[in-house]
Amino acid sequence: MLSDSKRLSYLDIAVVGGAAGAFVAGFMPWVSYQVDLLPGPVSVHGWSAGFTAWAGVLLLSVAGLLWVVLRVGSWSSTTARAALPVLGVSAVGLILVLVRWLSVPANNLVVYHWARYGIAVAVVAGLVEVSAALMPIGVSGEWLLGLRPGRRRSLG
After folding, report:
1. Residue 115 — φ and ψ, nearest 5°?
2. CA atoms within 13 Å, Cβ hemisphere of 101
3. Could you tell me the pLDDT band of residue 54, with boundaries at 50, 70 and 90?
4. In what order do the strands lie in the sheet with 29-35?
5. Spatial separation of the C-alpha atoms in residues 26 and 71, rounded to whole Å
């Protein structure tokens, strides 16, 4: 059980919620195809919509699990230390999902393609996850330079 010092923060909920949303979006329809010879459209869910789709959803989901391991695990509970690897993994996952969205083929004379709501849910979940993982690092990036927030080192 979590002690008072390890209560779930809004960032914890956002990262894990984004990962869960991306995982669920993998089961939603991502692309639909309508062939003139067939009576109805055929939908493809995220787990079978190509490498960039399933790899992106998998990376977004793994980033949420990584956040839980780094935040709840006994060896590291600092939010800023947990944020950097989660930010990297979730950013790559979001990029892969965006690549899949942009690579939905154009319509031709025989087959009509269009993106469905599952891919939009995955993009929103990825944006939430990346944004929440970016917040602890801070805009200035002081943690990346080895500085503690609020302390300045002189250059001279």
Report:
1. -80, 150
2. 17
3. very high
4. 42-45, 29-35, 111-115
5. 25
